[in-house]
Amino acid sequence: MSTKSIIGIIVALIALAVINASVYVLPEYEKAVVLRFGKLQPIHPEVGLNFKMPLSDEVRYFDSRILTLDAPPENYFTVQNKRLVVDSYAKWRISDAALYYTSTGGIEDTAGRRLAVRISDGLRNEFGKRTLHEAVSGERDELMASLVETINKTVGQELGVEVVDIRVKRIDLPDEVRNSVYDRMRAAREKEAREYRSKGKEQAEIIRADADRQRTVIEAEAYRDAELLRGEGDAKATNLYAAAYSKNPEFYSFVRSLQAYKTTFQNKGDIMLIDPDSDFFRYLKSSQGDTPPSLGQ
To answer: Helices in the chain by DSSP H: which ranges?
Structure first.
């Protein structure tokens, strides 16, 4: 191989090394800053292919995706001076890579600790403005939204980060007051239940009394109608009997006697002590119903 060829290969290798040292690629999920001899440069690398000064420039990369800050539970006091144990977490991301590097040195743990202090102070202020009920259930969403807005006004300018969301995982009462609070809540619920039961019993008595009244009225009206109908029937029957008797009194008397015999002698063991000359045996001795002769004749 000739000398020119060797020199050409050496030059190509040097050129390739210089190009490799001058080019870098920034992924979509990262942000970066450029340091020249350790000093931050006012350069804002874009996603994709970027260039830098070889040997003198250093590129520092930071994760630009949404990160989670899970803070330990802390104690906060409401406006009523009620202590609460709050377990919360926050979602945040880097908004200004240069400011983030300047304020935290590009260390995620440092940024998390400083951000946790600001979130804790913000939670303390927000809980201090609200009652126990408002903090626990009534205005929790409003509380979180207000806290995110307040914190972003400061951390964006101080740390170069943006708080996306803050959420409360759990709110507990302190152990020393939890049982007494639960007892008061249980007593309140039992009182409310007793009131509902009392109102229910009252309504039941009203409904039952009304039903009894309606039943009495219906029975009375039914008895009245039945008596009217029975009276009308008895009157018609009496008229029919009277009309039949007037047409043939002897036959009517004969039929009545037969009914009396049937009713009286339907049991073989029955015994009657009656005068043989009694009118009861009138039609047994004579089909014409004549007065029977005396036993002495």
So the answer is: 3-22, 97-104, 108-128, 132-133, 140-158, 175-247, 249-264, 282-285
Neighbours of 272 (CB within 10 A): 8
Residues 6+ apart with CB under 8 A from 71: 87, 88, 89, 90, 116, 119, 120
Q: What integer pLDDT is reported at residue 272 of this predicted model? A: 64
- Whole-angstrom Cα distance, residue 278 to residue 10? 165
C-alpha–C-alpha distance, residues 267 and 34, integer Å: 131
pLDDT tens digit string along 77-122? 888 888 888 888 999 999 999 999 998 888 889 999 999 999 898 8
Beta strands 74-77 and 83-94 are antiparallel
User: Could you tell me the pLDDT band of residue 211, with boundaries at 50, 70 and 90?
Assistant: very high
The encoded tokens of residue 76 equal 């906060």
Q: Which of 95, 89, 91, 122 is nearest to 31 (CA)?
A: 95
Residue 20 CA: distances (Å) to CA of 47, 98, 175, 262, 292: 18, 24, 62, 137, 157
Rounded CA separation 67/90 (Å): 8
Q: Which domains does the chain have, with CATH numbers?
A: 3-63 (no CATH), 67-172 (3.30.479.30), 250-285 (no CATH)
Q: Is the pLDDT higher at 110 or at 295?
A: 110
